[in-house]
Amino acid sequence: MSVATERSWIGDGARRALALGATALLMGSFLAVLSHVTDVAGGTDRLVLFVAGSLLAATVLARFLPAAFAPILAAGLFTVGLWGYIQAVPNGELLLRSFDAVRADVIALLTGLSILRIAEAGVWAIGFAPAPTFLTWYLALRRHYVASAVSGGVALGFFVLTGDAGPTVALVGIVGAAGVVGFGELERHRGSVGQVETLVAVLAAMIVLAPLVSVVPGGAADPMVSSGGGGPETVEAGLLTGGDEVGIQGSISLSPKVRFTVESSSQEYWRVASYDRYTGQGWVRTGDDRPYNGSLAGPPGDTTQLTQNYTAETSLSIMPAAWKPSTVSGDPADNARVTSLAGLQPDGTLANGTSYTVTSQRPNWTADELRSAGEDYPDGIRSRYTQLPESTPERVANRTDRLTSNADNPYDTARTIERWLEGSKNYSLDVDRPDGSIADSYLFEMNAGYCTYYATTMATMLRTQDIPARFVTGYTPGQRVARDEWVVRGLDSHAWVEVYFPDTGWVRFDPTPAGPRSAVEGSNLENARAGNESNVDTNRSEDGEWTPTPEPTPAGGSADAEDSAANDSANPAGLQRAAEQDQADAANGSATPAGGGAAGGTTSVADSSPLPELPSPSREQVAFALVALVGLAAGAHRTGLAERLYRALWLRYWPSGSPTSTVEAAFERLEYLLADEHRPRRDGETPREYLAAIDADDRARRVGAIFERAHYGEAVSDADATEARALVAELRGERTPVLGRFRRSRERGPDSI
């Protein structure tokens, strides 16, 4: 049998399928962003419906609608979607009339404002989706592949600018756009199999090589976020950069360096920022910042005035303040901004030595007052602060229902969740960041974590009970160096939860166990001092903690101040029932008993397992490996490497059978060797004629003679089969491995192979 040649063409259907598949990949990239937005902000079902309708309309209209009308129809879809969003936003029509406001919002989106920061992000995503989906698919069906790639690329590029399209999504979209153009042109010009394989290999190389190339130059590390020494990021790196988003990290470290000092008549948590929208992977603050105009509204109930004076001991990009700030004075106040959640932000950074003063109205409350506060929340509070991603597993609500079954008011519910988290999980900075919902993973599958895990989980559990809660970042009081002065370091950075109560406002709850956290922070500071690290002390902090004379507990402040025996017994039956249900939860997907941790003395899975558990590959890693394999396969086939590898194995593999079949296999392999060295045997050319035409040596002629006998029905013996096989193996051994040619033997003369 002669060597097979590559087919010149592939079917039109296959070529078009590749082009449309690349179009689907491009559309999938920006639809993935929209799907994430609607999962977080609500409206996933409607998004699927609108996208499906757009695809159906494009498929039908592509048969008869002229291409010139498609952009007009897409513009109409976009206008309708935008109008629907405007109607959903409070005072949306007034906003539309303000051209400056609209222009500012568009510029903000194009310079990094996440879609998730928009109040009605889900409505916006649903309104945006139909236009690019329709136009991209319609143009691809009409074989306008370049225009299709431009349409989809613009949609994806918009999300890259807003920061909602991560590197993986952006890379998928770029590869999809390149595939649309490449495969589309191959379809139009009836490209060959080899050209398709070349394009597949190039696209796969783009995916494989992209993560290995960095185009962002390195810069000086921010002293607020650098851990130093190339170690893991600090807590501050993920929490306290003053940004509009907070992601949940894996392992982190603590920085012992001093950040600022505070003069205050009482110790507080020095609050930096709060966040209202939970994404499942982190937190986002919705709404726009505004300039500070000289004063801020206080909480709804009774308050006590508290004055604090802050001095930056390093460059700061934040403005800490005890809750709830009402006035700010000092140089930073001139350009300070107020977030949508009433936090303070500087315009730029505060230089070392900069001071400012904050007057706060601290809410006064008692536990009994909060228990009787009721659930008559102001307009917008419940909807804004009980939001959860639609993908949040139902078992989170089920566990919380059991845990708080005896709590008949939001305060006792919050206290029960707070104490349960304190006692059921270990405190650790060395954790692996889970995939999927952070709160669900921490609740059911993790033994340990640090403040962001505790706070995220508590806020999520409260929201499943329709209790308004939000995620807050800032610093714990720090080291007290005088009656009214505290030194605050990077290791004091922290995250906690605020819960809303009618007639009181936001009240702090801290589910992170204070003892283990303080021990870790103290050890870190001692090690830094022993290592003579710089900037870990001020003149007044080297002498240790100043101990005040015991004073009565103030009426207001954190829920921790009300940690009485009555509070501790708020819901013991619920705690017990939750522990009794651990086994049932494990059967439904929970890997770790909920009662494990420091308080319960439960040993982690890793401690009880005789062998280390190998980490499972992520979906991204699996997809990356598959793409690499496809690219390697296409490249190997295109370059002939796959054929050579196959033939190398085929030449060494001899099927078992009769002497006749062995001789036939030997001659087939001989033909391949001779074709590679000389030329293939032509149609109608007998083996004897072929061997004579290429002037084969005596060994090849001997194999040919044995083959003629077997082929024309003469009996061949086992000895004949063994001889033919040995001669072919000898010829194969003289073949040059790389070039595929035979080595000329001087002993055999010019006629030898």
Automatic annotation (TrEMBL):
Entry keyword annotation includes Acyltransferase: no
Ranges of Low complexity composition bias in the record: 584-593, 601-616
Cited Gene3D superfamilies: 3.10.620.30
Stretches assigned to the Transglutaminase-like domain: 443-513
Residues annotated as transmembrane: 17-37, 43-61, 68-86, 106-131, 143-162, 168-186, 198-216
Swiss-Prot/TrEMBL keywords: Membrane, Transmembrane, Transmembrane helix
Region of interest: Disordered: 512-616
SMART domains: TGc
A Pfam short name: DUF4129
Domain of life according to the entry: Archaea
Record-linked InterPro entries: Bact_TGase-like (IPR052901), Papain-like_cys_pep_sf (IPR038765), TgpA-like_C (IPR025403), TgpA_N (IPR021878), Transglutaminase-like (IPR002931)
This protein's record includes keyword Nuclease: no
The protein's name: DUF3488 and transglutaminase-like domain-containing protein
